[in-house]
Amino acid sequence: MGTIVTSGVGSGLDVAGLVTKLVTAEGQAPTTRLNQQEADVQGKLSAIGSLRSALSTFNDAVSALKDINRFQGRQATLSSSDFLTATTDSSAVPGSYSIEVQQLASAQKLQSAAFESPTTAVGTGTLRIVAGGQNYDITIDGTNNTLAQIANAINSSAAGSKLIASVITGASESRLTIAARDTGAANGMTITQSGGDGGLAKLTYPPSGSGMTQLTAALDTRVLIDGVVATSPTDTITGAIQGVTLTAKAVNASGETTSLNVDYDRAAARKSIDSFVNAYNSLVKTIGTLTSYNATTKQGAPLFGDTGVQNIASQLRRVIASNVAGADTSTQALAQIGISAQLDGTLTVDSTRLDAAFTNDFDAIGQLFSKDGAGVAVKLDGLLQQYVGTDGLFDKRTASLNASIKDIDDQRNQLTDRLNALKDRYTKQFNALDSLLAKLQSDSNYLTQQLSKLPGFG
User: Fold this and answer.
1) DSSP letters of 337-372?
2) Neighbours of 212 (CB within 10 A)
């Protein structure tokens, strides 16, 4: 606890200055040591962050290669996009097809004869609507027998999940329209009536004398694939060609066809391999920078001599150079497809050899990277997850370094407390010395004064 003093008043001694210099000298060495320790830890934290980022980027590139379905992509090429589109998955078999779109799917729409207005009474009884293989009975009586009320009764019934009823009113007439919600022949409808006054016969379909008129038929999409008919209740056709989904857009002229070619997506696979090589090379360079030693300055980088980082690098090199057990003998190692290591540890790609490997056996390259439990990318992913995965080694290492920084902060606080206590002790000691010197000075002055009064003094 501080005290109010007037240091040096009596003796002229600079107590505050002396105390400050002594305390500063006492704290200089440990402060310098703590600052250097924190700088070292912060440097390692930053280096670990950079290394983890490079490893994560490499892991992303590895992930694109370890999944055989992503690597062995297929691409669909059409001679024209006017009539249909096509998408593929990895099960698609390369080949060429001739496709004619003969018919597009449509939803059935019916319309009644003209009535005077929406409030015109139509009749009473029961309307039975058959739609999508389901029967819906709707009771019409004197409380809901107008054109508009019948439309509301249909929409609010269970049939409303399959149909939409509406009244269209023009300048001099109103008509009831009933449209199926879904396209396809199976979603067509029939309407019959029973009981009541018979007026509901005007809303039946197919009509018997009077009744509804069909505006749009319930149709399936129909395509001809190499002479084989394929249909679908929607414009999308799946299963007709293995691994290919077709979506019809417009009807071809009779005999006109669109050519579809399904092939391996070599461009995407090559792009994934290039990303893999680039990410690995960037990682190797990052590791080199973070573990380097400057012979001129005799200073090592933050992770110089770090056995953990050296272990990562050596493990990666071993996997990169390993053979894939069970793979085709001509495609068991990256070097066999033109991906080889250089003296500095980076990889290089021989485009000619890689393109030839793609042409020779595309699936074999997929197995090289993605074979279950043995593929290069599969093994690399397993290795990388030990480091960059949740609760992996980097999480633990980062936590340890952060704990070290907290410990340094605690030591700083302890040093501050110790120096403050030392300052108080020095201040008390020098103030006591100052008081003693002041008293001695006072006594000296008094004696001198008294002696000066003696006869013959001086």
Assistant:
1) GTEEE-TTS-EEE-HHHHHHHHHH-HHHHHHHHH-T
2) 23
Of residues 210, 193, 23, the one with CA closest to residue 115:
210
| 122 contacts 244 by C-beta, under 8 angstroms | no
Distance CA 288, CA 286 (A): 5
Q: Which helix (H) or strand (E) holds 64?
A: helix 15-66
Exposure class string for 439-455: b at 16+ Cβ within 10 A, else e: eeeeeeeeeeeeeeeee
Mean pLDDT per block of 10 residues along the chain (458 residues) reads: 45 74 82 80 82 91 86 89 93 93 97 96 96 95 96 97 96 96 96 95 89 96 97 96 96 95 88 94 93 88 86 93 87 93 93 90 89 92 85 75 83 83 78 72 74 70
pLDDT, tens only, 206-258: 987 789 999 999 999 999 999 999 999 999 999 999 999 999 999 999 999 99
CB distance 107 to 100 below 8 Å: no
Q: Is the peptide bond before 206 cis (omega within 30 degrees of 0)?
A: yes
Q: Report d(CA 432, CA 428) in Å as an integer.
A: 6
pTM of the model: 0.62
Dump the DSSP string for 277-329.
Answer: HHHHHHHHHHHHHHT-EETTTTEE-TTTT-HHHHHHHHHHHHHHH---TTS-G
370-384 pLDDT tens trace: 988 899 999 999 999
Q: How would DSSP label each residue in 204-236?
A: -BS-BSB--EEEE--B-EEEEETTEEEEESSSE
The β-bridge partners of 151 are none
Q: What is the pLDDT of residues 160-196, one digit of tens each?
A: 999 999 999 999 999 999 999 999 999 999 999 999 9
Q: In 10 A of CB 139, how many CB atoms?
A: 14
- Spatial distance between the Cα atoms of 207 and 150, rounded to a whole number of angstroms: 18
Count Cβ atoms within 10 A of the Cβ of residue 216 and give its class: 0-12 exposed, 13-18 middle, 19 or more buried. middle
| Cβ burial 336-359 (10 Å sphere, 16+ → b, else e) | bbbbbbeeebbbebeeeebeebbe
Q: 15 and 7 in contact (C-beta within 8 Å)?
A: yes
User: Edge to edge, what strands does the sheet with 221-225 contain?
Assistant: 74-78, 258-264, 95-103, 221-225, 228-232
Is the separation of the CB atoms in 140 and 126 below 8 Å? yes
Helix axes 351-360, 266-290, angle to 10 degrees: 140
> How far is C-alpha 76 from the geometric centre of its chain's CA atoms?
26
Cβ neighbours around 323 below 10 Å, total: 15
- φ and ψ of 149, to 5 deg: -70, -35
Three-state SS at 193: strand
